[in-house]
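Appendix B. Raw example, untouched.
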Amino acid sequence: MPEETVRQVVMTPYEIIATILAAIALIQPWIIAAWKKFFKPLKVAFIPSAKIKLYYNRSGAYIYLGGVIEAKNRPAVIKDISAKVIRQSDKAELVMDWSSFMVPVFQSVGGNSVTTSEIACPFMIGANGLNPVFIEFANSDTQVVDRLSKIYEKLILESKRISNINTPFEQAKVQFQAMPEYQTFREELLENFYWKVSDYQIELSISHSDNKIETYRYRFSFEQDEISEFRNNIDEAMLYELKMIYYQPVNLKTFQKDFVTTER
């Protein structure tokens, strides 16, 4: 048999280094992708608009806040957003959850740019992009909501009973406001009117896909002249149905307040 010659391949140090570098270059994108997906922390940030809108109507007191949400490092699912307003003078709280969460939708229709909005809850936001949102919060206290519903259901019935084609609006209004129920309800609504002269703190909590909650805090204040004007919304809300029947304008005041960001 012919003698077999066994040759051992020996790599030079240069070849070893080149092989290692080539292997690193090959797997580097996978390492980076895995790091971003599994190890780099998700951070959800909220940047509010310059002003917050404050309301009082037949739904009681609530707020409207706009801004942008950013998911840093990787995409995130926004599960819930809630808000709590704390009146600093007596620590009375207004606890709210999102009633609508409007996300702008940009699309082309017939070659024209059209902007609409959709209500989404929950929703996903992409990584490292600014996602504009406009959030309306409503009172989450079921006892308060149920009580307001009962009050205004009664006022709606009385408005329909009093209104008549032969009765002018001003006469119907006087008759409506003279009812014992009207005065009783008005005193109750005035007593429970949340907006008072005070400093306020808003705690905005965002729950996202990592089962974490990011909380942001803001402050604003109300002066006496503003509250006196705001309290007129109670009569406007109580007269709402009667004015609708008589095609009269309803003047529900909305306040826009500057606010400052405090510590998180």
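End of appendix B.
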